[in-house]
Write a structure and sequence with these properties.
heterodimer; A: 617 residues; alpha/beta; Pyruvate-ferredoxin Oxidoreductase, domain 3; Rossmann fold; 3 domains; 8-stranded mixed beta sheet; 7-stranded mixed beta sheet; 21 helices; 22 strands; 36% helix; globular; B: 343 residues; 13 helices; 30% helix; disordered N terminus; binds thiamine diphosphate; binds iron/sulfur cluster; binds magnesium ion
Chain lengths: 617, 343
């Protein structure tokens, strides 16, 4: 299709948000828009904003579903702060999302829906399209519903059904504005509605109607935008959410280690997709037990690990609480398991669909007795794959439970993932005991890593008994000997500490010394990175140390800290990592910046904060 | 894995092969000793290699059991034996898993896992030592302690309704329920062997005496003087007769069971119920499981044994099928499945 647009403006990056009622198909619209961004070679990250209720009343603010995509020619690390363009299918999504649109940004609405009944449901006393409330924005009022209907009038389809495709009209408008090809959406229709050619035809037509509409009206056609391909490495790419990446990381680890994967898990938002995803892949030999509760989830996992599977359990904060006692059992029996905590806003049931970083202390210390675990955290949706893999490797090679922290933001968000080859991933070599090994004893340790051996039931000549009672060093008999308890406690502690020798040292982004070091961990990586890059653009000297290894901390941590005048630790909690750091490095003065709103940091607020600090405040 | 049943090659396993080097630390006179001994005698007969036996437990006096059996063993945490055993069995269905638990372990803290294990019908053998007391914590009442019984934590007598293990288990879809008494090693061994052969969760409730904190709680039906008249050993296909003279029997009158005497009121052997442990409908089995002195004798033996699919069996079948017909054969396939693009 040729465009008569006069002006094509090139943009580095753009944030688009689609918002509608939960029945308006916003997730699909967003994912088709993402596909087009992929084909155009952009880097991107997305985030869905589901309503907290499953079926909140239609037309109300509570029922609004959204999808945000941040795409660019530059590297993209987050799904974006504020939207450049908001597509609002009804009044309620406009009401809910207006605060997330940049001043001067574009808002596209279906003005056919701005009628009294709908306005009232959304809680508007005046029609915002008629008063002055939107004067700071570039508002495009498109008769989306009407034009959707007329575009397929002659197909004789049911009106209600036709209106369900209003989202494709909106998508058509967006495709025009951003100079996208229609082919990826067409392919989707052909696939999805294979059995019903009429529906394929109607969707294609509605998409084009939107595209042509945009082209025909001055306000939209005078300027269109182009976002050039990003400078991504050569390779094969896909879009992936954090939860799927996590699930796949475990599958990769199981294949690499030659162990069968076992998952014991109880559904909980926002972790359930990992359970669902792994349940799909029985062709890879995965065994999944949807347990009766989180305790059974982890205890079955420990059983499976004893029996020789690579076993994991997945949950969110409340579930991690229930697993505490059993994590201690895994510590004591020194069996490899991974516990995934997809953090959400707490405490108690808290805000299940919102994200936070507030389970760190629980992961580190939430157990009775001296029960050290390895704790690591993923930092982007795509690298959940690598940290799930890493957690697995550490668990199996060091024979210890590992807690992997992700969060709702990483879990549901998606980004571009360069597909690795299995042959490029490192080996995982679990220390399996050999049949009839006369030297085998349950608690005999490797002198370097201090791990014991994995002696799997069914193996000849290795019958032994383990359990939660303290065990005698080497031989593993029940022991209440005071000295022995000291020795075993120290072994368990030291075994975890030694992991630092086997993992990457901490990296610093930016100058290696200077005024200000930003120290962060987990899911805030993207926003920290964008903030620091923004400050670099402004010519400021600031560096970022973003941590993935929480326990043990990387061995060069102290050295890094010692090179900066000020250290700021921004976290989405009341200050948990900072406490951990204060405990380990008492000579530094760590400053805090905390937020607990169930919302991610904004690049802008961080840039402001860091700038203030650089100005000596 | 090579799966030759070793005992075909060397049928020489003995009780000694299953005795660990650990000193048994139960109180002298505790019923647990007799159960352990019966179990160690049965293991050479169950038809699996000694490396394929796994003994799992929770916490309690009873749950110390795995330490004394020379096998792969796992002493878990309180109440969670069923979950532990499930993970082991699902992970490797070739293993023969025995779960040892107590009335507190499985009916109080572990009640949830216990009912779900039965419902899933995993092929696990469960021995629940019912001493109607918390032994390890020194004498508090348990979910099976009779109403009104005085214990350390019920000085005025309990004010709770006790569970009947069989009724609970059958209600939870249990496919195999048997009851044994710790005073009859031969009966215990027979039942253990039968349990090992049942496909699905086999639950054996063993009426066990805690000499220290609940002595003689089962005396009415275990003591030499009274047991014949207060215990009935149910055998499949045989009429339900008991008593010193074997002249008492069980009949069904209306919707209740009743105890009758042969020859009295014209009762003949033909009136006596014949035990059918394979009967699908659970009604009679529940009535039998809930019989209690003084009105009834307590039922021992295999009360219910029905055949139904097991979780582990289905899981293996699904995996086999998916491996055959699934398109994704390895993780590289998975990573490249669905929508991808090249740059
Ligand atoms: C989480 C937890 N709560 C409480 C206990 C204390 N505890 C240990 S054993 C037990 C009761 C055991 O009773 P039962 O299962 O009947 O076993 P028995 O000792 O009678 O064989 C209790 C309450 C524990 N070990 N762990
Ligand atoms: S306290 Fe009771 S149950 Fe425990 S070992 Fe002693 S007699 Fe047996
Ligand atoms: Mg007990």
């Amino acid at each position: 299709m040729t465009s008569k647009a006069q002006k094509v403006v090139e943009l580095e990056h753009v944030v688009v948000r689609f918002a509608g009622d939960s029945g308006d198909g916003m997730q699909l619209t967003g994912s088709l828009f993402s596909d087009a961004a992929a084909i155009a070679g952009n880097d991107f990250a997305t985030f869905p904003d589901y309503p907290a209720e499953i079926r909140a009343p239609q037309g109300t603010v509570a029922g609004v579903s959204g999808f945000q995509i941040h795409f660019g020619h530059k590297e993209i690390h987050t799904s974006g702060d504020m939207a450049d363009v908001l597509v609002a299918m009804n009044p309620a999504p406009l009401k809910k999302n207006l605060m997330w649109v940049k001043p001067g940004g574009t808002i596209i609405v279906d003005n056919d829906t701005f009628i009294d009944k709908q306005l009232e449901k959304a809680g508007y006393s005046n029609n915002p399209l008629e008063d002055e409330s939107l004067r700071d924005y570039n508002v495009i009022q498109a008769p989306v519903s009407t034009l959707t209907k007329t575009s397929v009038e002659d197909l004789g389809l049911d009106n209600k059904m036709v209106l369900k495709s209003r989202n494709m009209f909106a998508l058509g408008i967006m495709f025009f504005i951003f100079n996208r090809k229609l082919s990826s959406a067409d392919e989707f229709f052909e696939q999805k509605f294979r059995a019903n050619p009429l529906v394929v035809e109607s969707n294609k037509r509605i998409l084009r109607a939107g595209y042509n509409y945009a082209e025909s009206i001055e306000a939209l056609s005078s300027i269109t935008y182009k976002v050039e391909p990003a400078k991504l490495q050569k390779g094969i790419y896909r879009n992936i959410t954090g939860n799927i990446a996590t699930a796949w990381g475990f599958l990769a680890a199981a294949e690499k280690s030659g162990r069968q994967l076992f998952l014991g898990s109880y559904p909980i938002t926002p972790a359930s997709e990992i359970l669902q995803e792994l349940s799909k892949h029985k062709s890879l030999g995965v065994k999944v037990l949807q347990a009766e509760d989180e305790i059974a989830g982890i205890v079955s996992t420990i059983g499976a690990s004893f029996a020789g599977s690579f076993a994991i359990t997945t949950t969110s904060g409340p579930g991690l609480s229930l697993k505490s006692e059993a994590i201690g059992l895994a510590v004591m029996t020194e069996l490899p398991i991974v516990i995934v905590d997809v953090q959400r806003a707490g405490p108690s049931t808290g805000m299940p669909t919102k994200s936070e970083q507030s389970d760190l202390m629980q992961a580190l210390y939430g157990r009775n007795g001296e029960a050290p675990c390895i704790v690591i955290a993923a930092s982007s949706s795509a690298n959940c794959f690598y940290y799930a893999f890493e957690a697995s490797k550490l668990a199996m090679e060091h024979m210890t439970p590992v807690i992997l922290l992700t969060d709702g933001y990483l879990a549901n968000g998606s980004e571009v993932f360069k597909i690795p080859k299995m042959s490029d991933l490192v080996e995982i070599k679990p220390p399996l005991a050999e049949a009839n090994d006369p030297e085998y004893f349950p608690y005999k340790r490797d002198p370097e890593r201090l791990n014991r051996k994995w002696a799997v039931p069914g193996t000849e000549g290795l019958r032994h008994r383990i359990g939660g009672l303290e065990k005698e060093d080497i031989y593993g008999h029940v022991s209440h000997d005071p000295e022995n308890h000291q020795i075993m406690s120290e072994y368990r502690y030291e075994k975890v500490q030694r992991v630092a020798k086997y993992v990457e040292p901490q990296k610093v982004y930016g100058p290696e010394e200077g005024e200000l070091l930003v120290v962060s961990w987990g899911g805030t990586y993207g926003v920290m990175m964008e903030a620091v890059q923004e400050l670099h653009k402004q010519g400021k000297s600031v560096s970022l140390a973003h941590f993935h290894y929480i326990n043990p901390l990387p061995r060069n941590t102290e050295e890094i800290f010692s090179k900066f005048k000020r250290i700021i630790v921004p976290e989405l909690n009341m200050g948990q990592f900072v406490l951990h750091l204060r405990m380990h490095f008492q000579k530094f003065n760590f400053e805090q910046y905390n937020k607990v709103q169930g919302l991610p940091f904004m690049v802008k607020e961080l840039v402001d904060k860091f700038n203030q600090m650089l100005e000596g405040k | 894995m090579e799966k030759i049943k070793t005992e075909q090659l060397k049928p020489t396993l003995t009780k000694e092969d299953f005795i660990s080097d650990q000193m048994v630390k139960w109180c002298p006179g505790c019923g647990d000793h007799a159960i352990l001994s019966a179990f160690q005698k049965v293991l050479p007969q169950v038809g699996v290699k000694k490396e394929d036996v796994v003994v799992v437990s929770g916490i309690g006096c009873s749950s110390r059991f795995p330490y004394y059996v020379k096998s792969y063993g796992f002493h878990g945490i309180h109440g969670r034996a069923a979950a532990l055993a499930s993970g082991i069995k699902i992970s490797n269905p070739e293993l023969m898993v025995w779960m040892i638990t107590g009335d507190g372990d499985s009916l109080a803290i572990g009640g949830n896992h216990f009912i779900h294990l039965l419902r899933r019908n995993l092929d696990i053998n469960v021995m629940l030592f019912n001493n109607k007391i918390y032994g390890l914590t020194k004498g508090q009442f348990s979910p099976t302690t009779p109403t009104g019984h005085r214990t350390k934590s019920s000085p005025q007598g309990t004010i709770e309704h006790p569970f009947n293990v069989g009724e609970l288990a059958i209600g939870a879809q249990g496919t195999f329920f048997a009851r044994a008494v710790d005073t009859n090693p031969k009966m215990m061994a027979e039942i253990m062997l039968e349990a090992s052969r049942h496909s699905g969760t086999s639950l054996i409730e063993i009426m066990q005496n805690c000499v220290i904190f609940n002595d003689k709680i089962h005396a009415e039906f275990t003591s030499r003087e009274t047991r014949d008249d207060s215990q009935i050993y149910l055998e499949h296909g045989k009429p339900m007769l008991f008593g010193k003279e074997n002249d008492k029997g069980i009949v069904l009158r209306g919707t209740r069971l009743e105890v009758v005497k042969l020859g009295q009121d014209g009762i003949t052997i033909d009136d006596i119920l014949v035990h059918d442990k394979y009967q699908w409908e659970s009604g009679i089995h529940v009535l039998l499981a809930t019989m209690e002195p003084p009105e009834y004798p307590i039922a021992v033996g295999v009360i219910r044994s029905i055949s139904d699919f097991t979780f582990d069996g289905k899981m293996e079948a699904i995996i086999k099928e998916e491996k055959e017909k699934g398109k994704i054969k390895c993780v590289d396939d998975l990573l490249n499945s669905g929508k991808t693009w090249e740059i």
